[in-house]
Known about the structure:
The complex is a heterodimer.
Chain A lengths: L7 E3 L6 E3 L20 H21 L3 E5 L2 E5 L1 H10 L3 H30 L6 H14 L5 H12 L6 E5 L1 H19 L2 H6 L6
Antiparallel strand pairs in A: 1-2, 3-4, 3-5
Helix pairs in contact in A: 1-3, 1-6, 2-3, 3-4, 3-6
Chain B lengths: L16 E3 L6 E3 L8 E3 L6 E4 L4 H21 L3 E5 L2 E5 L1 H10 L3 H30 L6 H13 L5 H15 L4 E4 L1 H19 L2 H10 L2
Antiparallel strand pairs in B: 1-2, 3-4, 5-6, 5-7
Amino acid sequence: MNARDAGLKVCSTCGVLQSLDSDVPCRRCGARVHSRKVHSLQRTWAFLIVGMLAYIPANVFPIMMTKSFTGDRSDTIFSGVMALTDSGSHFVAFIIFFASIVIPVAKFVIVSSLALSIQFNWDTSLRTRHRLHHLTELIGRWSMIDVFVVAVLAALIQLGAILTIIPGVGINAFALSVVFTMLAASSLDPRLLWDGEKDVY
Amino acid sequence: MITRVETLSPQQNTENLIACSGCDLLYARQDLQVGEFARCDRCSQVVQTCKPLSIDRSLAAVLAGLVLLLISLCLPFLSLSRSGIESTISVLDAVVSLWDSDMRWLGLMTLGFIVLLPLIRLLLLSWVLWSIRFEHKARQATRVAFRWSVQIEPWAMADIFMVGVVVSLVKISSLANLEAGLAFWSLLALVGVMVIVQMTLCHDTVWNKLEERT
């Protein structure tokens, strides 16, 4: 039996149950309590679309410019990964590739297919979908690695004519994209997945 | 074994019930032994925990974390030299230098994610745990503080920052000589300490204690 079917709703921060039709904040922690997150799917789509749009300039524009007496170069996310591979740091290249390309794209695909699966009542395994949702919430924040790399390099490397690193527009777009997809994943209420459950599982 | 609630009488006390935060399934509250936890048998979300010595251990870890964070903010973080020119920065210097060179967004984000949010979270947690440990009367404010510290959690990114730092070290190792300062090691230790906080902090225990003392 679901809490909602029993006429109850649970506080998402502290777990206290209260009656479905009471309007007061949680008596223990003071949070507003909703049986399901408010406008969950709408918010998820809105955040996700902004996240996907921001991911385009994040990849097109350079995230980092290096100026040194041996010449200037500017790197996009992808060319940064290639540069790392060329210099033989395969492991680090893999980490960046994973955090900046695999995780964001996987999140776009997973979150949008979860939202669609709720809207159209898809008949795929609920456990799998629940796990996927949990996974996206868990690993989403790790996409920020590249942002911090650029921040550290830009702050640290100010050696004037010898070597200077300047962040590009791409990194701002990328950070926005990560923040918005994190918001998208956390707006999606996993309980909506289970609401569509058929009696057998 | 956790038992589902299938029927509910109107008189049922909701304090003996818990609902899974992942799928909304209703369960009877268990009497857990210390060290045990209960999972939802439908979606496998952990629904109830009872961690040993949670308050003492997590308070200790949180205080250690505060000290480490303060150390890492002020002491030199990295120093770099090439062709006789040297530059040493602390984390705060890095933020200031990003701000000064018109990279305000990046500076603000770094400040927020790796300085402010972790600091706020640690301060809130130390306040909450301290007041439980030394049996101060719990006020509504303490509960709000704990709620916030729970909600901030995914946005405090010291751990991710450290991976970013290591990647940057690899990236520029061929261009300049780098040396990690004390702050680097204390921030690394902070990441470890935060994992300990995560492992020892028992939300159920904290909420119950906060409720007992009103």
